[in-house]
From TrEMBL:
It is an enzyme of class 1 (oxidoreductase). Its EC number is 1.17.1.8. It catalyses: (S)-2,3,4,5-tetrahydrodipicolinate + NADP(+) + H2O = (2S,4S)-4-hydroxy-2,3,4,5-tetrahydrodipicolinate + NADPH + H(+); (S)-2,3,4,5-tetrahydrodipicolinate + NAD(+) + H2O = (2S,4S)-4-hydroxy-2,3,4,5-tetrahydrodipicolinate + NADH + H(+). This is 4-hydroxy-tetrahydrodipicolinate reductase. InterPro entries: DapB_C, DapB_N, DapB_N_CS, DHDPR_bac, NAD(P)-bd_dom_sf. The gene is dapB. It comes from Clostridium acetireducens DSM 10703. Residues 3-111 form the Dihydrodipicolinate reductase N-terminal domain. GO terms for molecular function: 4-hydroxy-tetrahydrodipicolinate reductase; NAD binding; NADP binding; oxidoreductase activity, acting on CH or CH2 groups, NAD or NADP as acceptor. The lineage of its organism: Bacteria, Bacillati, Bacillota, Clostridia, Eubacteriales. NADP(+) binds at residue 35. It is found in: Cytoplasm. Keywords: Amino-acid biosynthesis, Cytoplasm, Diaminopimelate biosynthesis, Lysine biosynthesis, NAD, NADP, Oxidoreductase. The keyword NADP applies. NAD(+) binds at residues 8-13, 34, 84-86, 108-111. Homotetramer.
Length: 249
């Protein structure tokens, strides 16, 4: 049985994970961390430093400003850290990379298996299509999402950019009078209502378009991916891991 500490346990995703974990016979949440210490099926601490319950992995679905405390706690307890939070700064991403030399860290901009399959498809087709197709990315999320564009949109955009041999750059939305510049990949963020998450990559050519789209119907898809990451990271050696490792595994 892999024992999990869940940071952000009383947030929207935390609550979904707490329900979804019941479908995993080999996983158990033994403690939670949240400013809201409302009672759940396990003890909840308002500060991770006060958590005195042994666990095998530390799972984070919260906000980027929790990062330092999470890494300090994971190092102190010598347990893998699974980061599902998005919106980290470039400096924080560098900290994660450096910290992974000492500790096992899993990080993904999106915990959906489907999104990561699409990401792998983009690695194979982006350079092939680039010369004859313009590339645009559209992402849609609920009206409470803080970061824009989404971490997933940036994941897909960077995969495309890194797969194309020519130099490309991003343009975030458009305003004013200007034509499409071929080597600029458009990224557009839409916020509204209760949209769980939609990501669409459009390759627009002369006389045809190729569209690759992923729609999250419920948050459970992210919870399942996060819990699979907990399974995968049990007793892992130091290093930086991602969803590709799970898919290949």
């Amino acid at each position: 049985m892999t024992k999990i500490i869940l940071n952000g346990c009383n947030g929207k995703m935390g609550k979904v994970i707490s329900e979804t974990v019941k479908k995993f016979e080999n996983l158990s949440i033994v403690a939670g961390i949240d400013k809201n210490t409302s009672s759940v099926d396990y003890p909840v601490f308002s500060n991770i430093k006060d958590c005195n319950i042994d666990a095998d992995v530390l799972l984070d679905f919260s906000r980027p400003d929790s990062l330092k405390n999470l890494m300090d706690y994971a190092k102190l307890k010598n347990i893998p850290l699974i980061i599902c939070t998005t919106g980290h700064s470039d400096e924080q991403l560098k900290e994660i990379e450096n910290f992974s030399k000492e500790l096992a860290i899993f990080r993904s901009a999106n915990m959906s298996i489907g999104i990561n399959v699409i990401n792998n498809i983009l690695k194979n087709i982006s350079n092939l299509l680039y010369n004859n197709y313009d590339i645009e990315i559209i992402e849609k999320h609920h009206n409470q999402k803080v970061d824009a564009p989404s971490g997933t949109a940036l994941l897909l955009a960077n995969t495309i950019k890194n797969s194309i041999k020519e130099e490309t750059s991003f343009i975030y939305g458009r305003e004013g009078s200007s034509k499409k510049v071929h080597n600029k990949i458009g990224i557009h963020a839409i916020r509204g209502g209760s949209i769980v998450g939609e990501h669409e990559v459009i390759f627009a050519g002369q006389g045809e378009t190729i569209e690759i789209k992923h729609t999250a119907i419920s948050r459970e898809v992210f919870a399942v991916g996060a819990l699979k990451a907990c399974e995968f990271m049990y007793n892992k050696a130091p290093g930086l891991y991602c969803m590709d490792d799970i898919i290949r595994g």
